[in-house]
Amino acid sequence: xxxxxxxxxxxxxxxxxxxxxxxxxxxxxxxxxxxxxxxxxxxxxxxxxxxxxxxxxxxxxxxxxxxxxxxxxxxxxxxxxxxxxxxxxxxxxxxxxxxxxxxxxxxxxxxxxxxxxxxxxxxxxxxxxxxxxxxxxxxxxxxxxxxxxxxxxxxxxxxxxxxxxxxxxxxxxxxxxxxxxxxxxxxxxxxxxxxxxxxxxxxxxxxxxxxxxxxxxxxxxxxxxxxxxxxxxxxxxxxxxxxxxxxxxxxxxxxxxxxxxxxxxxxxxxxxxxxxxxx
Length: 279
Hints:
Helices cover 80% and strands 0% of the residues. The chain is mainly alpha-helical. Helix 7 packs antiparallel against helix 13 and helix 9 packs antiparallel against helix 10. The protein is globular.
Protein backbone atom coordinates (compact mmCIF):
# COMPACT_ATOMS: atom_id res chain seq x y z
CA UNK A 1 0.00 0.00 0.00
CA UNK A 2 2.86 2.36 0.77
CA UNK A 3 4.54 1.59 -2.57
CA UNK A 4 1.36 2.39 -4.49
CA UNK A 5 0.76 5.50 -2.38
CA UNK A 6 4.24 6.76 -3.28
CA UNK A 7 3.67 6.02 -6.97
CA UNK A 8 0.39 7.92 -6.68
CA UNK A 9 2.04 11.19 -5.60
CA UNK A 10 5.42 10.89 -7.34
CA UNK A 11 4.01 12.86 -10.28
CA UNK A 12 4.61 15.97 -8.18
CA UNK A 13 8.34 15.18 -8.33
CA UNK A 14 8.31 14.66 -12.10
CA UNK A 15 6.51 18.00 -12.48
CA UNK A 16 9.66 19.66 -11.15
CA UNK A 17 11.59 18.04 -14.04
CA UNK A 18 9.08 18.82 -16.80
CA UNK A 19 11.80 20.72 -18.70
CA UNK A 20 13.88 17.52 -19.10
CA UNK A 21 13.20 15.23 -22.07
CA UNK A 22 11.24 12.10 -21.02
CA UNK A 23 13.75 9.60 -22.44
CA UNK A 24 16.61 11.40 -20.71
CA UNK A 25 14.61 11.42 -17.49
CA UNK A 26 14.11 7.64 -17.67
CA UNK A 27 17.82 7.15 -18.37
CA UNK A 28 18.66 9.12 -15.24
CA UNK A 29 16.13 7.06 -13.27
CA UNK A 30 17.89 3.85 -14.26
CA UNK A 31 21.42 5.15 -13.67
CA UNK A 32 20.84 6.87 -10.33
CA UNK A 33 18.48 4.09 -9.34
CA UNK A 34 21.39 1.68 -9.64
CA UNK A 35 23.42 3.90 -7.32
CA UNK A 36 20.56 3.97 -4.81
CA UNK A 37 20.18 0.20 -4.97
CA UNK A 38 23.92 -0.17 -4.49
CA UNK A 39 23.83 1.94 -1.32
CA UNK A 40 20.87 -0.04 0.03
CA UNK A 41 22.64 -3.32 -0.75
CA UNK A 42 25.80 -2.14 1.00
CA UNK A 43 23.87 -0.98 4.08
CA UNK A 44 21.97 -4.26 4.30
CA UNK A 45 25.18 -6.24 3.68
CA UNK A 46 23.81 -8.13 0.68
CA UNK A 47 26.73 -7.60 -1.71
CA UNK A 48 27.50 -11.32 -1.64
CA UNK A 49 23.88 -12.09 -2.43
CA UNK A 50 24.05 -9.81 -5.47
CA UNK A 51 27.24 -11.53 -6.60
CA UNK A 52 25.62 -14.94 -6.14
CA UNK A 53 22.60 -13.82 -8.17
CA UNK A 54 24.85 -12.62 -10.99
CA UNK A 55 26.57 -16.02 -11.06
CA UNK A 56 23.28 -17.96 -11.03
CA UNK A 57 22.26 -18.33 -14.67
CA UNK A 58 18.63 -19.11 -13.82
CA UNK A 59 18.24 -16.04 -11.58
CA UNK A 60 20.11 -13.89 -14.09
CA UNK A 61 17.81 -15.05 -16.89
CA UNK A 62 14.74 -14.29 -14.77
CA UNK A 63 16.03 -10.83 -13.91
CA UNK A 64 16.87 -10.22 -17.56
CA UNK A 65 13.24 -11.02 -18.41
CA UNK A 66 11.88 -8.74 -15.67
CA UNK A 67 14.33 -5.98 -16.68
CA UNK A 68 13.19 -6.29 -20.30
CA UNK A 69 9.53 -6.05 -19.28
CA UNK A 70 10.27 -3.02 -17.11
CA UNK A 71 12.26 -1.30 -19.88
CA UNK A 72 9.48 -1.98 -22.43
CA UNK A 73 6.91 -0.63 -19.99
CA UNK A 74 8.93 2.53 -19.42
CA UNK A 75 9.53 2.92 -23.16
CA UNK A 76 5.84 2.60 -24.05
CA UNK A 77 4.96 5.11 -21.36
CA UNK A 78 7.49 7.62 -22.70
CA UNK A 79 6.23 7.15 -26.25
CA UNK A 80 2.62 7.55 -25.13
CA UNK A 81 3.51 10.71 -23.23
CA UNK A 82 5.32 12.45 -26.10
CA UNK A 83 2.94 11.29 -28.87
CA UNK A 84 -0.33 12.47 -27.36
CA UNK A 85 -1.58 9.12 -25.98
CA UNK A 86 -1.44 10.07 -22.31
CA UNK A 87 -5.09 9.11 -21.82
CA UNK A 88 -4.34 5.58 -23.03
CA UNK A 89 -1.32 5.46 -20.72
CA UNK A 90 -3.38 6.46 -17.69
CA UNK A 91 -6.01 3.89 -18.64
CA UNK A 92 -3.28 1.24 -18.50
CA UNK A 93 -2.88 1.84 -14.77
CA UNK A 94 -6.54 0.93 -14.31
CA UNK A 95 -6.42 -2.15 -16.54
CA UNK A 96 -3.26 -3.53 -14.95
CA UNK A 97 -4.89 -4.73 -11.69
CA UNK A 98 -7.35 -6.80 -13.70
CA UNK A 99 -4.41 -8.33 -15.60
CA UNK A 100 -2.68 -9.16 -12.30
CA UNK A 101 -5.83 -10.74 -10.86
CA UNK A 102 -6.29 -12.80 -14.03
CA UNK A 103 -2.67 -14.00 -13.93
CA UNK A 104 -2.97 -14.86 -10.25
CA UNK A 105 -6.16 -16.87 -10.64
CA UNK A 106 -5.30 -18.60 -13.93
CA UNK A 107 -1.57 -19.30 -13.56
CA UNK A 108 -1.01 -19.37 -9.81
CA UNK A 109 -4.40 -20.92 -8.92
CA UNK A 110 -5.16 -18.21 -6.39
CA UNK A 111 -8.69 -18.39 -5.02
CA UNK A 112 -10.84 -15.32 -4.47
CA UNK A 113 -13.63 -14.81 -1.95
CA UNK A 114 -17.12 -13.70 -2.99
CA UNK A 115 -16.56 -10.11 -1.85
CA UNK A 116 -13.32 -10.00 -3.83
CA UNK A 117 -15.14 -11.16 -6.98
CA UNK A 118 -17.69 -8.38 -6.44
CA UNK A 119 -14.85 -5.89 -6.09
CA UNK A 120 -13.26 -7.12 -9.33
CA UNK A 121 -16.60 -6.87 -11.15
CA UNK A 122 -16.99 -3.26 -9.99
CA UNK A 123 -13.45 -2.44 -11.09
CA UNK A 124 -14.08 -4.03 -14.49
CA UNK A 125 -17.20 -1.87 -14.91
CA UNK A 126 -15.19 1.22 -14.06
CA UNK A 127 -12.45 0.29 -16.53
CA UNK A 128 -15.09 -0.41 -19.19
CA UNK A 129 -16.50 3.10 -18.65
CA UNK A 130 -13.03 4.62 -19.06
CA UNK A 131 -12.45 2.52 -22.20
CA UNK A 132 -15.81 3.57 -23.62
CA UNK A 133 -14.90 7.20 -22.99
CA UNK A 134 -11.65 6.72 -24.92
CA UNK A 135 -13.76 5.67 -27.93
CA UNK A 136 -11.44 2.97 -29.30
CA UNK A 137 -9.54 -0.18 -28.39
CA UNK A 138 -6.79 1.14 -26.07
CA UNK A 139 -3.84 -0.85 -27.41
CA UNK A 140 -1.29 1.36 -25.63
CA UNK A 141 -3.09 0.88 -22.31
CA UNK A 142 -3.32 -2.88 -22.86
CA UNK A 143 0.42 -3.10 -23.62
CA UNK A 144 1.30 -1.04 -20.55
CA UNK A 145 -0.95 -3.16 -18.34
CA UNK A 146 0.27 -6.40 -19.87
CA UNK A 147 3.97 -5.66 -19.45
CA UNK A 148 3.71 -4.47 -15.85
CA UNK A 149 1.27 -7.21 -14.90
CA UNK A 150 3.65 -9.82 -16.30
CA UNK A 151 6.52 -8.05 -14.53
CA UNK A 152 4.74 -8.54 -11.21
CA UNK A 153 4.23 -12.23 -12.02
CA UNK A 154 7.90 -12.74 -12.89
CA UNK A 155 9.09 -10.96 -9.74
CA UNK A 156 6.74 -13.03 -7.60
CA UNK A 157 8.09 -16.28 -9.07
CA UNK A 158 11.74 -15.20 -8.99
CA UNK A 159 13.68 -16.97 -6.26
CA UNK A 160 15.67 -13.94 -5.19
CA UNK A 161 15.33 -11.30 -2.48
CA UNK A 162 13.43 -8.16 -3.52
CA UNK A 163 16.37 -5.76 -3.05
CA UNK A 164 18.88 -8.11 -4.67
CA UNK A 165 16.59 -8.76 -7.61
CA UNK A 166 15.88 -5.07 -8.19
CA UNK A 167 19.61 -4.31 -8.02
CA UNK A 168 20.47 -6.95 -10.61
CA UNK A 169 17.54 -5.84 -12.74
CA UNK A 170 18.65 -2.21 -12.73
CA UNK A 171 22.26 -3.26 -13.33
CA UNK A 172 21.14 -4.85 -16.59
CA UNK A 173 19.32 -1.69 -17.71
CA UNK A 174 22.00 0.80 -16.60
CA UNK A 175 24.45 0.28 -19.52
CA UNK A 176 21.75 1.32 -21.99
CA UNK A 177 20.92 4.35 -19.86
CA UNK A 178 24.59 5.32 -19.59
CA UNK A 179 25.08 4.92 -23.33
CA UNK A 180 22.12 7.19 -24.04
CA UNK A 181 23.34 9.88 -21.64
CA UNK A 182 26.85 9.78 -23.12
CA UNK A 183 25.54 10.17 -26.66
CA UNK A 184 22.78 12.63 -25.69
CA UNK A 185 23.87 14.59 -22.61
CA UNK A 186 20.81 16.89 -22.68
CA UNK A 187 20.20 18.63 -19.36
CA UNK A 188 23.14 16.99 -17.60
CA UNK A 189 25.96 19.52 -17.46
CA UNK A 190 23.80 22.22 -19.04
CA UNK A 191 21.24 22.84 -16.29
CA UNK A 192 21.22 24.59 -12.92
CA UNK A 193 22.21 22.99 -9.64
CA UNK A 194 18.63 22.27 -8.57
CA UNK A 195 17.96 20.30 -11.76
CA UNK A 196 21.11 18.23 -11.21
CA UNK A 197 20.08 17.48 -7.64
CA UNK A 198 16.57 16.51 -8.75
CA UNK A 199 17.99 14.19 -11.42
CA UNK A 200 20.20 12.49 -8.84
CA UNK A 201 17.16 12.20 -6.57
CA UNK A 202 15.33 10.16 -9.20
CA UNK A 203 17.38 7.22 -7.97
CA UNK A 204 15.75 7.29 -4.54
CA UNK A 205 12.33 8.04 -6.03
CA UNK A 206 12.73 4.97 -8.26
CA UNK A 207 14.37 2.56 -5.81
CA UNK A 208 12.27 2.90 -2.65
CA UNK A 209 8.77 2.09 -4.01
CA UNK A 210 10.15 -0.55 -6.40
CA UNK A 211 11.77 -2.45 -3.52
CA UNK A 212 8.53 -2.19 -1.54
CA UNK A 213 6.53 -3.47 -4.51
CA UNK A 214 8.77 -6.45 -5.26
CA UNK A 215 8.96 -7.33 -1.57
CA UNK A 216 5.17 -7.33 -1.34
CA UNK A 217 4.83 -9.25 -4.62
CA UNK A 218 6.83 -12.13 -3.12
CA UNK A 219 4.75 -12.26 0.07
CA UNK A 220 1.18 -11.57 -1.05
CA UNK A 221 -1.15 -13.20 -3.57
CA UNK A 222 -0.66 -11.62 -6.98
CA UNK A 223 -4.38 -10.80 -7.14
CA UNK A 224 -4.05 -8.75 -3.93
CA UNK A 225 -0.91 -6.98 -5.16
CA UNK A 226 -2.62 -6.17 -8.42
CA UNK A 227 -5.91 -4.94 -7.07
CA UNK A 228 -4.31 -2.62 -4.52
CA UNK A 229 -2.65 -0.88 -7.45
CA UNK A 230 -5.79 1.21 -7.82
CA UNK A 231 -4.33 3.26 -4.97
CA UNK A 232 -1.72 4.68 -7.37
CA UNK A 233 -4.05 6.14 -10.03
CA UNK A 234 -6.36 7.28 -7.24
CA UNK A 235 -3.48 9.30 -5.81
CA UNK A 236 -2.72 10.64 -9.28
CA UNK A 237 -6.38 11.60 -9.69
CA UNK A 238 -6.47 13.48 -6.39
CA UNK A 239 -3.17 15.19 -7.14
CA UNK A 240 -4.34 16.32 -10.58
CA UNK A 241 -7.76 17.49 -9.39
CA UNK A 242 -6.84 19.09 -6.08
CA UNK A 243 -3.26 20.27 -6.52
CA UNK A 244 -3.10 21.10 -10.23
CA UNK A 245 -6.72 22.03 -10.88
CA UNK A 246 -7.23 19.71 -13.85
CA UNK A 247 -10.90 19.37 -14.94
CA UNK A 248 -12.69 16.14 -14.04
CA UNK A 249 -15.54 15.20 -16.45
CA UNK A 250 -18.57 13.59 -14.82
CA UNK A 251 -18.28 10.34 -16.80
CA UNK A 252 -14.68 9.88 -15.70
CA UNK A 253 -15.63 10.75 -12.11
CA UNK A 254 -18.38 8.10 -12.26
CA UNK A 255 -15.85 5.50 -13.42
CA UNK A 256 -13.52 6.47 -10.57
CA UNK A 257 -16.34 6.17 -8.02
CA UNK A 258 -17.23 2.65 -9.22
CA UNK A 259 -13.57 1.60 -9.01
CA UNK A 260 -13.21 3.16 -5.54
CA UNK A 261 -16.24 1.23 -4.29
CA UNK A 262 -14.58 -1.96 -5.55
CA UNK A 263 -11.33 -0.99 -3.83
CA UNK A 264 -13.16 -0.42 -0.54
CA UNK A 265 -14.89 -3.81 -0.85
CA UNK A 266 -11.58 -5.55 -1.57
CA UNK A 267 -9.89 -3.74 1.33
CA UNK A 268 -12.70 -4.70 3.71
CA UNK A 269 -12.25 -8.35 2.77
CA UNK A 270 -8.47 -8.11 3.32
CA UNK A 271 -9.06 -6.49 6.72
CA UNK A 272 -11.52 -9.21 7.75
CA UNK A 273 -9.00 -11.90 6.80
CA UNK A 274 -6.13 -10.15 8.56
CA UNK A 275 -8.09 -9.32 11.74
CA UNK A 276 -10.95 -11.83 12.03
CA UNK A 277 -13.66 -11.14 14.60
CA UNK A 278 -13.37 -13.65 17.41
CA UNK A 279 -16.43 -14.81 19.39
